[in-house]
Give the backbone structure.
Amino acid sequence: MTDAPAKLIDRAAKTLGPRAVITDPSEIEPWVSDWRGRVHGSSPAMLAPASTEEVVEIVRLAAEYRVPLVPQGGNTGMAAGATPPADGSAILLSMRRMNSIRSISADNRLAVAEAGVVLATLHDAVHEVGMRFPLTLGARGSCTIGGLTSTNAGGTQVLKFGTMRSLVAGVEAVLPDGSVHSGLSGLKKDNRGYSLDQLLIGAEGTLGVITAVALRLVPAIAARAVAWTGVDSPAKALELLRFLEARTQSVEGFELVPQDSLDLVLKHVPGTRAPLSGEHPWHALVEGTTADPAVDIVAELQSLLAAALRQGIIGDAVIAANEAQAEAFWKLRDTISEAERAEGQTLAHDISVSVADMPAFIVDAAAKVEAAFPGVVATGFGHLGDGNIHFHVRAGSHAAPGWYDAEGEKITHMVDDLVTAAGGSISAEHGIGQLKRAEFARLAPPARIHALRAIKHALDPLGIMNPGKLVP
Ligand SMILES: Cc1cc2nc3c(=O)[nH]c(=O)nc-3n(C[C@H](O)[C@H](O)[C@H](O)COP(=O)(O)OP(=O)(O)OC[C@H]3O[C@@H](n4cnc5c(N)ncnc54)[C@H](O)[C@@H]3O)c2cc1C
């Protein structure tokens, strides 16, 4: 290894000062492994700029010394995209000090937040002016606007509001040559050719460092209704969603939960209880919201679910009587992964196929995987209305401790092959990072890989922006 990283660190310390250059290994160590603790990296320093100008300085030094940078926000990503390589050849670039909200405009329905702003902080700030940023997910207390943008994150409200791609009005970013792209005007109409903003969304830090983002806001919620329903199959769950959507515009959350996943949550997560008295093979969590205080959203959802019950679409339903019960229903959904981890070894696949094909896909793929790998339990849960399911395969109770390492790759190949044959995506919302790069290379159409490589090379010819991630 060259002494280039040491030279860069030295220059950065002289120009940016000690707060921006952390070299104490005990301060760096918590940030060099991925959130799931599966990939472990190393970095000789953690650079922590406080302004766009400081990011420019760092990127220029990285280009001068040919030292790669690994941008990082909250480090909650699921594909190890923010984890540096183990050989210490790259330097971690923590964006967490760039954490101010530059502006909130209820009139423009826009907020401009720096990359290091934590999602929950943004939620609270826009709520104070009667607005809402309508994207949320389990990691909202730690994940950052820069990370969410760079992974084009989804979450539980995509059904109505889309992923980050729909909610980002513009991006400010430092490009690999040290120039600054300023796209924060939030123009609704701007047809000056290729959209650099859209290229940077979902780029996983491979095309530049996002320093601030203009985000679209909607009016704050006046009330919400959360229901838990029992259904016979994923097909019936989708029928319920379409039934509701034909009659109201208020549905913004719709999550599929198999009985097997609910059983694990009830077994492992303290304080949880089943919402319905009888057993149902599948469940759908439905959330309806309104920004209009005059609308009785609970009564509306109640009467729609009663109609769905009469028509035999659902077997049973209950509406949360208060906010605490609504939160308890969501907890049953949000703690599935935690319950699976408590049960034993689990392989997670974040996949999508077309919405109409998803019900059959879940059932068929689970049967095929269980037949090919006797003893495993395969099932899908999550964002059915987006055609995005977390297809998880659990080791059976008799699996050896090394099951994950011994069988994981074979099972994942099978799942990814099934997804690809169905015209779907092996990464619906978590990105490619390091963890899915080999599968992406194996299965992506040549035209897509060629275009990705060409764009990467055009914008980052020196390869200093998060190499080894996303682009095969
Ligand atoms: C409990 C939990 C629940 C989750 N639920 C969902 C969910 O429902 N839907 C979903 O889509 N995702 C979900 N995620 C994963 C999701 O991708 C992340 O939470 C979030 O998008 C990443 O934000 P972060 O700030 O932690 O980014 P990091 O993990 O730090 O980084 C992620 C990627 O973005 C890059 N990056 C980070 N900041 C910048 C920047 N400023 N400029 C350029 N590149 C940058 C990194 O290099 C890396 O490639 C969940 C994660 C957890 C832990």
About this structure: Residues 403-421 form the longest helix (19 residues). Residues 35, 70-78, 81-82, 95, 115, 137-139, 143-144, 146-148, 150-151, 153-155, 204-205, 209-210, 429-430, 433, 466, 469 surround flavin-adenine dinucleotide (CB under 6 Å). The chain has a mean pLDDT of 96.
